[in-house]
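Supplementary Methods S3. Complex input for the manganese (II) ion-bound model.
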Amino acid sequence: MLKRAQEIAAVLKKADEVHIVTHIDADGITAGAIAQATIQRLGKTSSIECVKQLDEMVLKRLKKEGHELVWFTDLGSSIADDIPKMTMIVTDHHMCSKESHLRYHLNPHLFGIDGSFEISGAGVTYLVSKTIDPVNVDLSALAVVGACGDLQDRRHCKLVGMNKTFLEDGITAHVLECRKDIRFFGRETRALPRFLQYANDPILPGLSGREEACVSFFEDLKIRLDHKESARRWIDLSYDERKTILSALARLLLTKGFSAALVERMIGEVYLLAREEPGSELHDAKEYATLLNSTARYGKHEVGLAVCLGDRGKSLDDARILLQGHRQNLVESLQFARDETLQKRTYVQFFHAGEGIRDTIIGIVTNMMLHDENVDKNMPLLGFVHTENGDVKVSARTTQQVIERGVDLSAALRHAAAAVQGVGGGHDIAAGATIPKGKEEEFLVLVEQKIRTQLSL
Ligand SMILES: [Mn+2]
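Predicted complex, serialized as structure tokens:
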């Protein structure tokens, strides 16, 4: 992998101008920002764009625009062949076939490394950046934000593999800190009741999704929710208060029959951006990733990119406003998904949101739905939604326990989508596809066939 990174570094150093094409999620934005900072530091000109997916239309347009060099980050591994007269570099981590015809293609799967939890798109891009100039180690902070955005810490409740190396780079460069703490989202910014209400890994029986129950939970423990009229957050609590809460949560889970292993998932490594202000949306890597998601998924990728590249003025203000909107949208979309009847089949369960949910957040909503109390954790969940250009977007999510039985959603969706003239792929635990409208039933049958085969192997 390092050798390939060096080859790519050499190509980038020789170029005069680089056009970057990246994905619209947090990992994509951080990957794009790492690429852009790297090119800028080389004193070269760069331009950047974010796309929802890389299809023939985008490739055709890029070819027509006549770029000397295009650097694809967090996507591109699906490109079949090099395009004459346009040098293409790909730093991606999505599942891909080992026989790639692309010349400058860096993807962990080509080297037997798992791209779903050992390295993200931002990480692969950072590897090239660090190879170009060791001074770029400060960008490791963005690589860790990207990895957290892609939930790469989920399997082991901490970052492992190459991600861990990047974390160490960041600690050495004083841009990252690592702590052992509760893993729920919003340690730094969420008021305590909301902090528990939205916890989903593990879900908290009786508390997840119920604000009033969460308020009484804290009251019963004699934990004050406010201090001088401002809401207290997890980071405002004393050591003893945290201990009291954690033991109460552990008791709750154990009495409801959860395994000790699941209870332990509450605690893990959390990653802090040492140069950011504590209590801000940028201090915790997961919260940073969510802030970025709320820019690009609403067509404002330039805001997220500017924040990654250091703008703490107007762009950060704009990003915060977008985050508010994103939160509101998620709450409404999740409610919409809950109101849709969940349909259970033999090997999968699904809901079809029609026009009710934005296609850019269907993945997040499907993931939130999967952790809902009435959703079966033993089979994959698929969310369908109509896209602006008349197709259907599918997001599939499942749990670790299903993966361990041999299910690979990436392979299943890629196979089923291709059979109905669509495209699909992603990771074993989280995958997506775009298919023509009206092909949903045919697609579901094919996905189920594939999953049945995977389970029997
Ligand atoms: Mn990614």
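The mean pLDDT is 94. The chain has 17 helices and 15 strands.
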